# Entry
Amino acid sequence: MADSGPYRVGYAPGAYDLFHIGHLNILRHARQQCDYLVAGVVSDEMAERAKGRRPMIPLVERLEIVRSVKYVDAAFVETVPSKLETWRQVRFDVLFKGDDWRGTPKGDQLERDFATVGVDVVYFPYTVHTSSTHLRRALDALVQPPAPATESSAPHS
# Structure
């Protein structure tokens, strides 16, 4: 892929569980902004710590899916909660996030932390109509056992 952006090395972290168009959009937009894109795939344990549940797709599979996306030059497994520690390992110039982080306490902290090491935080539009959370809820609804019939709803003989 040709050099295409103002940044040399970009980093796009995420769980990438139930990979969907929103994930693809972030990676596509990120690659347009940098010469080399590293996708950070958070470990199962890190995802559980951040979201309160383990991903549905195991890490090794999420890593292979993300690594296979044409916009991604390398994939990195995130195993520590500190993005600054991840930066020390990967050494990127810019971190990409969905704009659902912009203006939040976590996003503001991320910007402050990375300003100390000269790394920009760039936000891309969050794909509102599709998210792993929405997909997970839909799947959960499909596998929920039907509610037991109550006496008032049982057929009378």
About this structure: The chain is about 40% helix and 20% strand.
